[in-house]
Amino acid sequence: RWSEYSEKYIAGNYSIEMGRLSGGTLYCNPINYAADETQKERFLVPVAKDGQIGASAMTEFNAGSDIFSMELRLHERDNKLIAKGKKLFITNGMIADFIVLYGRLDNGQLAAVVVDTEHQKLRNFRSTRVRTYGMTDAFVSRLIFDRVELPKENLLHGHGLDIAFHQLTEERLVISAEALGDAMKKILYSHAYALQRMQFEKRLHQYQVIRFPISKKIRELNLMFSALIQYARQMDEHPELGSSKLMAANAMGLKISSTELGFESAIHCFRTLGGRGFTRQYANEIGLLDSYCMLHGGGSNYVLEDSESRRFFKHKPTRREVEDIIPKIDY
Ligand SMILES: Cc1cc2nc3c(=O)[nH]c(=O)nc-3n(C[C@H](O)[C@H](O)[C@H](O)COP(=O)(O)OP(=O)(O)OC[C@H]3O[C@@H](n4cnc5c(N)ncnc54)[C@H](O)[C@@H]3O)c2cc1C
User: Could you say which of 1.20.140.10, 3.40.50.150, 3.20.20.70, 3.40.50.1400 is the CATH number of the domain covering 167-312?
Assistant: First the structure.
């Protein structure tokens, strides 16, 4: 089944796309970046090629936006790593065959290790669903690692933070694509209803109050699509842009704007459709809550905006300011 609601694929089902993002980008990208050839053969091929399910586990109860404060321990014992700790809000967690797990080694450094969940039967590992409003098909889960033994050769090479951050640009472009698809569907519903629905002997689109917000959203959607296609093509042609600071900033900006657009389009859709917007026939497909979730998924927008605005307001003192210091008198 594609979804809890449907036997078939629903275009623009945000939560299915989140599952795909998690297995595709969030799991595969770090492995492609930081695994050796043997690890790629064991952990990348089954997910990227053979359709097994991947997940990425960073977030913890106390380490949400502040991901650097994560506490899960990866104790080193001979040729094993012992994972102890909990993870929260992990997309695909309860159905994953493989998980990239982030935690701290004995020296305190962040690291990433691949967990083969043995089809969720791994000893001392438990996963349960977080019951969410919205994002139903993303199987958002809570994971418990109660001294889970992992072979040391599953450890990815390099610093965990670098591995985690490396995939962010691609992740944010994929989330932007999801958000724009989601926004497009909602704008289409609003537009079609406004064109056809007659009230007070006029079509709804003949009222400015209905027409203007939809037109504004169409304009924003078109602009963001152009940006997304341009960034995605640049990344395809020059994969090394995955490490570019400018591309990272562009992808972050697009993630913020596109997920906000998805959320606002959902609100306008509910408003335009009147009572019908709340019936089950539409509510599943329109889904206000999926787009609300994605203001936080992939990095919460407030935090991203804070980081973006700091960059815009970064103050580099001029040479004159640097030199214009009254010299200290040495008595
Ligand atoms: C649908 C979904 C799927 C997810 N999938 C995964 C996954 O697969 N793997 C994974 O590891 N994680 C996943 N997450 C977790 C996600 O990355 C976190 O929810 C996110 O990082 C925010 O953390 P938090 O929920 O603890 O919020 P908090 O960190 O508690 O933040 C609460 C609010 O405070 C704001 N805030 C926090 N700090 C600041 C600041 N410095 N300045 C201004 N505002 C601030 C935030 O923007 C937010 O609005 C998922 C989340 C969702 C919703």
Answer: 1.20.140.10
